Amino acid sequence: MMAAISGLSLHRSALQSVIHALLYFSPAADIGVITNLFSRDSTLIDNELPMAITNLALDVDKALELLDDSQKPTYVLAMVQRCLLFSLHRSDTSDFTGASLVALMRFGDILNFIIRWWTQLETSIGAVTRLKALSDKVLSERFKDETEPVQPEWPAQSKIEIMGVSASYQSFNMANQFHEELSQEKPPHLVLENLSVSIAPGEKAAVCGRSGSGKSSLILLLLRMLDPLPSCAKGIIIDGVGLHSVNRADVRDRIIAMSQDPVFLPGRISLKRQFDPLDSSTPEECYAVLQLVELGNMASNVADMETPLRLESLSGGQRQLFNLPHMVLRGRVRSRRRNGGSKSGALLLLDEVTASISMDHQIERIMQRVIKVVIVERVRVVESGSPRALAMDDSSHFGQLWKA
């Protein structure tokens, strides 16, 4: 019972460490090592370790007596050896000799038993050490200063202010904190440098730039999957609340994000559960959202929402469009939870959502809807303003991108 409880505790602690690990852990970790920790090592702790301890355990009182005996003078040991030698000289019958040989043969089996279980004990203890090291050394996202409560409607206006923020993926140390000061000889590789952007409530802003310019890093920054450097940790404010003081789980629950790569649940999962894994909406709502995002051909009626989804039948564009129902449902559920279903503001982050979709015929529509465009180049904001005005300016960065 004790072994089962200990194994469960170690497994839970290691699992929590992996789930709440910082962003850098996922690409750096060896998936084979992690799988082995939760499979083979967990089996050793649950099954092999209790048996090894049981077979090698010694009574505490007996062990103390043996310890006391080992401290007696060597004279006693010499006397015992002489006594045994005298007894052997007196007993030289064939019966005694045969019994001695049998005992000697049995001694090898006993020694083999001890060595085998001692080795198993060391192996099992090694599994405990590895799981414990995973729990202790993997840096967690849970910081003690992220305790500021936010209103249920936050962020209602979605006003974003970023003031002189720099960020790097190398800014963590092994003490689960940021480096207090960064070495001048080996400065960190910045993915965002002195970033300053202001987005007004209700404003649709498009962040443009070449690959590696920092567009996705900006989204990670707003989702608190990437943290600013210590010198500018308080430089991000959303609706008057410093993002550094808000719990990360709350930030990701309140901000609706859509990645460029769709995520599907493995196995024969129903159509509804694929884009509503938390089961927070009804089949009727899910079906209505499918019609809204022009994926109505995937379900002819509400009953089809419970049929398994065949991923191999989806094209690349359909796979990316499949992110939209999940995002729309999250917005509706959030509005219903806050104010009984009326429309309310929400902060949406869309990361290259049209990468797999042909959008040539909709470029003009996008230009009309976007209010501000922000150009990022070499991890810095180089210009921002009206997309139409910048597109007409041949000397602007956006104008050059537009005509490229």
TrEMBL record:
<dbReference type="GO" id="GO:0016887">
    <property type="term" value="F:ATP hydrolysis activity"/>
</dbReference>
<dbReference type="GO" id="GO:0042626">
    <property type="term" value="F:ATPase-coupled transmembrane transporter activity"/>
</dbReference>
<feature type="domain" description="ABC transporter">
    <location>
        <begin position="169"/>
        <end position="403"/>
    </location>
</feature>
<dbReference type="Pfam" id="PF00005">
    <property type="entry name" value="ABC_tran"/>
</dbReference>
<keyword id="KW-0547">Nucleotide-binding</keyword>
<keyword id="KW-0067">ATP-binding</keyword>
<protein>
    <recommendedName>
        <fullName>ABC transporter domain-containing protein</fullName>
    </recommendedName>
</protein>
<dbReference type="InterPro" id="IPR003593">
    <property type="entry name" value="AAA+_ATPase"/>
</dbReference>
<dbReference type="GO" id="GO:0016020">
    <property type="term" value="C:membrane"/>
</dbReference>
<dbReference type="InterPro" id="IPR003439">
    <property type="entry name" value="ABC_transporter-like_ATP-bd"/>
</dbReference>
<dbReference type="InterPro" id="IPR027417">
    <property type="entry name" value="P-loop_NTPase"/>
</dbReference>
<dbReference type="InterPro" id="IPR050173">
    <property type="entry name" value="ABC_transporter_C-like"/>
</dbReference>
<dbReference type="GO" id="GO:0005524">
    <property type="term" value="F:ATP binding"/>
</dbReference>
